[in-house]
């Protein structure tokens, strides 16, 4: 700023970081959602009274979800550095940020998926069973369509949580809009950068929510 | 107390071929119990049910609300498990099967649910196609077949709707379509027509009968509507408080109900009580109650009594019902005349109608 | 004096209960072990408050919610004073470790090559210091207008090796060491992270302006308790404590403690 | 085409007092339309329905699945709004009311839902007590009253259960109990008995009748079961495709159905088709079809024909039904004899039965 | 402590910070839940087609939720300092941390409550309306009992998110177990402190989840 320049960040930098945010968001959401849905489904089917009730698998997964969710993100990020390095070869940069982001979001999505699936009326599962559907089919052909609306809302909620988490990913040099907000807006007191980045974040979140709500409403339409 | 077809009344019992031999039994209930734990002790939904459903038959179970009918039918495809006894589907104890075996067995059945249980977020067509999709049928073919079945149940134009946009009866027909789309060997119906008006009911009954005749599908019907039993079933079992209290061919149970509860159900089709209107006439003379079957119904009984026995006859009550391929009639008549002629008329009737009895004030 | 505080109601001259803010790390440990006993002897009781952030801790100081903080150098403090209109001033300098340039994937300064990655702190004033170390190494040149309060990679005017700067949270720099070619780590994280300052490829020439200070609000500079803190940091007991603990090897000592 | 009670057959019409005068109308449908937007154009669930439901009457609406019955009944308490026309409850257009006014109006009604709509997480007792709780009745009192009503519907021992632990029919009775717990002025029943067995149905009908008689509650019944109409209602309207196609007193519609659809419904109680068994005899001689009401039913018609007119009479079909306080009979007889006697018999019958017609092959 | 001591934290410190965590968690959950439920209910009833459909109120609240959820916690914390000072008279310490924690958790709970309430079958609302229930009664007497199971799960999820957020509260000198994990475990590389605090966090989260699941299962029992 010094020399009286209006702001510390350039348009180029802004758009680059915006790209980084979308990259981190997109990739970690993609993997997080896949893992999360798998986790959620396994928890639902292995729970006591579920289609494939299995006390051990259920307890292990349930505890695993809780462990990951217990650990503050920044600590999780450090704790899994060896794993991150194994996976992407480095512990810094956007690619490295994706690993802890995914690891932290997947169990969260898993829990939300679990909650959604448990809301599907029991009769639907019964009808599916009466047709000889496999547990996988019960999920893909019955529970998934019926829970679609609430699943979309859950994913929306998770995605928004992820936007917040990407801001913290700045710690590993990953950058992104949230990091811009903290590094420039907050730490360097660049009011303009703060405004632009926060408004951008609000727009991103608002868009995700609007799209999510609309998709959910459509899916929910009966 | 359950009776076998052996002692049933008319010659040709319409029971499915080979009934009674274990080899031709589609579903066997063998001392089945189902208890629910409950704060105030146990609730017994099924209390030792033994029953054979002959292959290829249309078998009805009737009973009051809460008798255990839904519980019984849910045992057949393994949706519920006995807490005691065994349920054999085509000779196999479902409880003994591994999951994959159970699923294979379930695929040979189709079930119509009392509360429809449709997917709310999916079109009617896709609801009906779903069982085929599970079998790996291509989506196109599954949908085409679904449309065929929807046509069957009179919903050809509703394929694109969601269940939420249908009336209660339309939903029930979607459930029926879904249950029959796979041409199941055993079709389980839990109140399959209770949300339907009479003419739709008649169509559905026609449809079920056609399925039974064409594919030899065993149909296990649970209902509280005696009309459904009357028009559709070969055999009927009457349930009460989790027990089978009576069992026989439909005609048999209709003509000679053994238990009060069976009589009450039969009475909804062929009244068993004597109308108040008739009771007013008790004491005016002899009131006779006749039950007639088939030819007895159309023979000129009254005419014969009047002209040949010289008695005065007033028909105080009469009604007739078609039960399976048989006509069952019920009449209450007042007979007046000299004692000997009246006695002769009685004697003649005794050997010309299925049953005759004097009506006395209850 | 005229700057002494009379808004707190109670007579400031008799104030003995102090509230001091820290960022967790060596300065707090040093205070607890080396200074606190002296202050307690003088009749003071101290409540320490941990902040994990540098901005809020200065706001709390300026608003009187804490009496002093010991976690920053005067450059940083000044920059925040300017930004937020605070009136915090430096009371006394405390011993502190210098910034250190470590080799990660590279083993010596000579291995630097085109596109080498260099991790630097993401906080502007520490980034400024890190850049100064790199200038000392002869790797970059900086803009004349660089300001410690807002320093950013944009201030690097000459970068012949085309160094790639990786901006990290201070504590992240230690575990990230093996993922970068070079790593310029703030001294207290070097110490806390179990690295040895003596293993560094290059140490910061720590000037007074980047030495950590005890900051107080301007109006309290002349209070008794402020004087007591200042005296404690300049006392021989404290000098003895620093000298006798090997963990402070390599620390930059204020003039008053240099023996 | 809807008929007013004026031209109904027997002397005493059982229609509620003062029917027809607008002051005593509980519910008035005034050219009501209900259209649903749909991909393939609009769906008309109600297509210009005008109907007055007299205060204190039991008014039935019957129609096939999808006719618009549920849609109609949901208009009465403002659950649905007309897209055209007005619905007046006790003279007030519900659409014109502010929210508080609408709620007050709704509290004077009770509704039994086709699909029960019970709270699944709450005991049966608390489900029934809920409307009272809404009114601020103390929990104790509300529960006590709920138990009373549960006793009414035969579920005295089920108060502690959750709906999920009940059978279909039991759930329906909980819905009924909840609807009547406030002693509503207007009771709306959407298929209130379709999940019930005949004897429970009879009990519920008895109960509804008692409520109507004791409290003068107007009961608006929507059903596909003609038996319910027959046993319960004073007036009936027949719906088809969103329109009222026939309307009159129950007896009236039963004795002289004007439309095919009404005839079809009536036929489920008093058969209107000629049984196949009877058709075989067409051509053997004159087949006459008689409809009898009340005393005509118990008078010795056949005897008279045989003894006084010297013709031979064979009863090919006969049945009777109690409709409201009246007996309706239906007979098909074959009359043989010299032409003049047969003619005389015809003439005599013409003035002694409600209707007579020759049966010809259809 | 210094020198070769095994760990930097003392048992006293640990238990004090544990108490602080429970204090922050308890108070912010209490207010956050109240506000969140109110927000969720208002969003549900004012949404298009809701009992008190009101486009303006709905949109304002919906956007407000999104704004709060868009802003990284650290920025939110700074942004509302004047408000915090107004409310609790200071901007530092546990009491001050409660304000941003509550402000950040309430809209999140609101969103979860909204999702849960939308899952209650439409027929229940219809039955309630047919009895002339007021919108408030529809909520308290019908939706709430029916959604109780999923609401409890949602609150459980939110509480666990809150545990994570309290760790960040260290920024304002609030302390707590999460801050201990970050200050000692993360910033001072104190492995033992890290282990103890993380295990403690896991136990807290696991306990919350177990209690939540059990309560939900009981509420859900049909
Ligand atoms: N989960 C349960 N817990 C306790 N009792 C139950 C449970 N499910 C069913 N019952 C009881 O078991 C009995 C039989 O129920 P079932 O559903 O089989 O009756 P039904 O004959 O199908 O009746 P309906 O004609 O009313 O559908 C009923 O008395 C019912 O209350
Ligand atoms: N949301 C909707 N969208 C489109 N069409 C609808 C919708 N709801 C109902 N309908 C149609 O309106 C017509 C009337 O429905 P309604 O539920 O009133 O029938 P009903 O007479 O009660 O039938 P049932 O005896 O089967 O319950 C039906 O054809 C139905 O498909
Ligand atoms: Mg049932
Ligand atoms: Mg309906």
Automatic annotation (TrEMBL), chains A, E:
<keyword id="KW-0812">Transmembrane</keyword>
<dbReference type="InterPro" id="IPR035906">
    <property type="entry name" value="MetI-like_sf"/>
</dbReference>
<keyword id="KW-0472">Membrane</keyword>
<dbReference type="GO" id="GO:0048473">
    <property type="term" value="P:D-methionine transmembrane transport"/>
</dbReference>
<dbReference type="InterPro" id="IPR051322">
    <property type="entry name" value="AA_ABC_Transporter_Permease"/>
</dbReference>
<feature type="domain" description="ABC transmembrane type-1">
    <location>
        <begin position="18"/>
        <end position="211"/>
    </location>
</feature>
<keyword id="KW-0813">Transport</keyword>
<dbReference type="Pfam" id="PF00528">
    <property type="entry name" value="BPD_transp_1"/>
</dbReference>
<protein>
    <submittedName>
        <fullName>Methionine ABC transporter permease</fullName>
    </submittedName>
</protein>
<comment type="similarity">
    <text>Belongs to the binding-protein-dependent transport system permease family. CysTW subfamily.</text>
</comment>
<keyword id="KW-1133">Transmembrane helix</keyword>
<feature type="transmembrane region" description="Helical">
    <location>
        <begin position="56"/>
        <end position="81"/>
    </location>
</feature>
<dbReference type="GO" id="GO:0005886">
    <property type="term" value="C:plasma membrane"/>
</dbReference>
<feature type="transmembrane region" description="Helical">
    <location>
        <begin position="87"/>
        <end position="109"/>
    </location>
</feature>
<keyword id="KW-1003">Cell membrane</keyword>
<feature type="transmembrane region" description="Helical">
    <location>
        <begin position="20"/>
        <end position="44"/>
    </location>
</feature>
<feature type="transmembrane region" description="Helical">
    <location>
        <begin position="192"/>
        <end position="212"/>
    </location>
</feature>
<dbReference type="InterPro" id="IPR000515">
    <property type="entry name" value="MetI-like"/>
</dbReference>
<feature type="transmembrane region" description="Helical">
    <location>
        <begin position="151"/>
        <end position="172"/>
    </location>
</feature>
UniProtKB/TrEMBL annotation, chains B, D:
<keyword id="KW-1003">Cell membrane</keyword>
<feature type="domain" description="ABC transporter">
    <location>
        <begin position="27"/>
        <end position="266"/>
    </location>
</feature>
<dbReference type="GO" id="GO:0016887">
    <property type="term" value="F:ATP hydrolysis activity"/>
</dbReference>
<dbReference type="Pfam" id="PF00005">
    <property type="entry name" value="ABC_tran"/>
</dbReference>
<dbReference type="InterPro" id="IPR050086">
    <property type="entry name" value="MetN_ABC_transporter-like"/>
</dbReference>
<dbReference type="InterPro" id="IPR003439">
    <property type="entry name" value="ABC_transporter-like_ATP-bd"/>
</dbReference>
<dbReference type="GO" id="GO:0006865">
    <property type="term" value="P:amino acid transport"/>
</dbReference>
<keyword id="KW-0472">Membrane</keyword>
<dbReference type="InterPro" id="IPR003593">
    <property type="entry name" value="AAA+_ATPase"/>
</dbReference>
<dbReference type="InterPro" id="IPR045865">
    <property type="entry name" value="ACT-like_dom_sf"/>
</dbReference>
<keyword id="KW-0813">Transport</keyword>
<feature type="compositionally biased region" description="Low complexity">
    <location>
        <begin position="8"/>
        <end position="21"/>
    </location>
</feature>
<dbReference type="InterPro" id="IPR027417">
    <property type="entry name" value="P-loop_NTPase"/>
</dbReference>
<keyword id="KW-1278">Translocase</keyword>
<dbReference type="InterPro" id="IPR018449">
    <property type="entry name" value="NIL_domain"/>
</dbReference>
<keyword id="KW-0547">Nucleotide-binding</keyword>
<keyword id="KW-0029">Amino-acid transport</keyword>
<dbReference type="GO" id="GO:0005524">
    <property type="term" value="F:ATP binding"/>
</dbReference>
<dbReference type="InterPro" id="IPR017871">
    <property type="entry name" value="ABC_transporter-like_CS"/>
</dbReference>
<protein>
    <submittedName>
        <fullName>Methionine ABC transporter ATP-binding protein</fullName>
    </submittedName>
</protein>
<dbReference type="Pfam" id="PF09383">
    <property type="entry name" value="NIL"/>
</dbReference>
<feature type="region of interest" description="Disordered">
    <location>
        <begin position="1"/>
        <end position="21"/>
    </location>
</feature>
């Amino acid at each position: 700023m010094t020399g009286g320049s209006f702001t510390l960040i350039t348009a180029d930098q802004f758009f680059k970081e915006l790209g980084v945010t979308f990259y981190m968001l997109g990739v970690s959401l993609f993997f997080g959602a896949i893992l999360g849905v798998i986790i959620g489904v396994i928890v639902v089917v292995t729970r006591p009274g579920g289609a494939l009730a299995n006390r051990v698998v259920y307890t292990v997964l349930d505890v695993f979800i809780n462990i990951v969710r217990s650990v503050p993100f920044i600590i999780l990020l450090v704790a899994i550095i060896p794993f991150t390095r194994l996976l992407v070869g480095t512990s810094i940069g956007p690619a490295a940020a994706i690993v802890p982001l995914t690891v932290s979001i997947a169990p969260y999505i898993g829990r939300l998926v679990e909650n959604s699936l448990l809301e599907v009326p029991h009769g639907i599962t019964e009808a599916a069973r009466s047709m000889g559907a496999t547990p996988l089919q019960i999920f893909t052909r019955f529970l998934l369509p019926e829970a679609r609306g609430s699943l979309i809302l859950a994913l929306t909620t998770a995605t928004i949580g992820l936007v917040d988490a990407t801001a913290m990913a700045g710690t590993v040099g990953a950058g992104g809009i949230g990091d811009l907000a903290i590094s420039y807006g907050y730490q360097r007191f660049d009011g303009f950068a703060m405004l632009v980045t926060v408004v951008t974040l609000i727009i991103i979140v608002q868009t995700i929510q609007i799209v999510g709500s609309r998709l959910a409403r459509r899916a929910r339409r009966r | 107390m359950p009776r076998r077809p052996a002692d049933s009344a008319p010659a040709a019992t319409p029971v499915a071929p080979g009934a009674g031999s274990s080899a031709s039994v589609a579903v066997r209930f063998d001392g089945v119990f189902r208890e629910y734990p409950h704060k105030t002790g146990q609730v017994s939904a099924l209390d030792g049910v033994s029953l054979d459903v002959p292959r290829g038959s249309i078998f009805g179970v009737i009973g009051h609300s809460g008798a255990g009918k839904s519980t019984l039918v849910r045992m057949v495809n393994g949706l519920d498990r006995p807490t005691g006894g065994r349920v054999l589907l085509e000779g196999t104890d479902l409880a003994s099967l591994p999951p994959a075996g159970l699923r294979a067995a379930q695929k040979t059945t189709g079930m119509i649910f009392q509360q429809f249980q449709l997917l709310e977020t999916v079109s009617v067509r896709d609801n009906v196609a779903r069982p085929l999709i599970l079998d790996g049928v291509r989506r196109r073919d599954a949908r085409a077949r679904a449309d065929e079945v929807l046509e069957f149940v009179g919903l050809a134009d509703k394929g694109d709707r969601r269940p939420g946009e249908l009336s209660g009866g339309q939903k029930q027909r979607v459930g029926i379509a879904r249950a029959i789309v796979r041409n199941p060997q055993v079709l389980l119906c839990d109140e399959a027509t209770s949300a339907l008006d009479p003419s739709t009911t008649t169509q559905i009954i026609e449809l079920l009968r056609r399925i039974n005749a064409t594919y030899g599908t065993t149909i296990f019907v649970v209902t509280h509507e005696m009309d459904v039993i009357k028009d559709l079933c070969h055999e009927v079992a009457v349930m009460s408080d989790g027990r089978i209290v009576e069992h026989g061919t439909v005609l048999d149970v209709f003509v000679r109900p053994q238990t009060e509860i069976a009589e009450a159900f039969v009475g909804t089709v062929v009244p068993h009580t004597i109308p108040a209107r008739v009771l007013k006439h008790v004491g005016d003379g002899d009131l006779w109650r006749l039950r007639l079957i088939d030819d007895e119904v159309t023979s000129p009984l009254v005419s014969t009594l009047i002209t040949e026995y010289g008695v005065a006859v007033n028909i105080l009550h009469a009604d007739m019902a078609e039960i399976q391929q048989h006509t069952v009639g019920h009449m209450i008549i007042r007979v007046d005349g000299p004692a000997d002629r009246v006695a002769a008329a009685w004697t003649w009737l005794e050997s010309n109608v299925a049953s005759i009895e004097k009506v006395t004030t209850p | 004096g005229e700057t002494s505080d009379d808004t707190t109601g109670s007579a400031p001259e008799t104030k003995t209960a102090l509230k001091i803010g820290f960022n967790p790390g060596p300065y707090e440990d040093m205070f607890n072990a080396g200074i606190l006993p002296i202050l307690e002897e003088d009749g003071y009781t101290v409540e320490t408050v941990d902040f994990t952030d540098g901005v809020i801790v200065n706001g709390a100081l300026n608003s009187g919610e804490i009496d002093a903080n010991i976690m920053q150098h005067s450059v940083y403090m000044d920059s925040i004073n300017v930004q937020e209109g605070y009136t915090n001033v430096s009371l006394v300098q405390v011993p502190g470790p210098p910034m250190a340039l470590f080799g990660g994937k590279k083993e010596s300064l000579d291995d630097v090559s085109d596109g080498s990655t260099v991790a630097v702190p993401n906080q502007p004033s520490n980034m400024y210091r890190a850049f100064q170390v790199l200038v000392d190494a002869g790797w970059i040149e900086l803009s004349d207008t660089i300001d410690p309060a807002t320093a950013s990679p944009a201030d690097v005017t000459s970068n012949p090796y085309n160094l790639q700067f990786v901006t990290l949270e201070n504590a992240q720099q230690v575990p990230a060491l093996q993922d970068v070619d070079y790593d310029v780590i703030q001294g207290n994280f070097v110490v806390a992270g179990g690295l040895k300052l003596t293993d560094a490829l290059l140490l910061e020439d720590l000037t007074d302006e980047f030495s950590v200070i005890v900051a107080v609000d301007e109006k309290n500079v002349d209070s008794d308790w402020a004087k007591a803190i200042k005296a404690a940091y300049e006392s021989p007991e404290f000098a003895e404590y620093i000298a006798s603990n090997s963990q402070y090897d390599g620390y930059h000592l204020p003039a008053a403690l240099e023996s």
